[in-house]
Amino acid sequence: MPKVFLSPSTQEWNPYIDGGNEEQYMNLIADRMEPYLRSSGITYVRNDPDRNVAGAIADSNAGDFDVHLAIHSNAAPESMAGMLRGIDVYYSPYDKYSETLAVIIANNFMSIYPLPDKCSAKPTTTLGEVTQTKAPAVLCEIGYHDNREDADWIRNNLTAIAVSLTQSLCDYFGIPLIEAGPVFRGTVVTDGSNLNLRQFPSTQGDVIGSIPNGSVLTVYSRSNGWDVVSYRGTVGYASSEFIVI
Fold first, then answer.
1. How far apart are CA 203 and CA 93, in angstroms?
2. What is the pTM of this model?
């Protein structure tokens, strides 16, 4: 299953107009992403809030991730403080996967941000979380926190932003976004044979594991005849027909 390094800002020194800071709100977005990631079958690791950008890059590169997703908000230069708005999604011009993901994210933000023409994907050769990571990476600057309208939009749309980011990851990986819900325990009930654990919700999906009849597993979601489950540390899709909640 896809694995993402989730890297919300650690910059508590960047204040939001009318209160709060960048680290606070970007982590609230990441918090809201987690149940949607789980239900959609995307595993993740979050950055350590006590480490800086270099630490996040090192931790990401130490693992085996399919995407590095950095989540930030922006601030205008001092001479234009409070005057700018918009969402910029930065990608590496040397990585087609980075660019593809950035375009998907920017396009999906157009449907929820009040100024869709100000949502764009932009290349960067200077942002370390994009250029120095082993996994394809993007850095999202979600609005300008020194602008009152943008700061209020972020505060009032934390869940919508989280869902949009998760939808973008699902679009990139080619899997469905599944609504977040309760986590259940389930039992495999077959004719005695093992139940296949698959990479994608299809009988054509690669088999990544085998679950014996009678096994207990964790069920993150159920949709269109498929469950997103975790069995002995492996997350994948299994047929709902053979799992009793």
1. 36
2. 0.92
> Helix (H, G, I), strand (E, B), or coil: what is residue 98?
helix
- Listed residue (225, 229, 220) closest to 239, CA to CA: 225
pLDDT in tens, the chain (245 residues): 899 999 999 999 999 999 999 999 999 999 999 999 999 999 999 999 999 999 999 999 999 999 999 999 999 999 999 999 999 999 999 999 999 999 999 999 999 999 999 999 999 999 999 999 999 999 999 999 999 999 999 999 999 999 999 999 999 999 999 999 899 999 999 999 999 999 989 999 999 999 999 999 999 999 999 999 999 989 999 999 999 99
Q: Record the tokens describing residue 137, joined without a space.
A: 């990476």
CA–CA distance, 127 with 92 (Å, rounded to integer): 9
d(CA 162, CA 28): 9
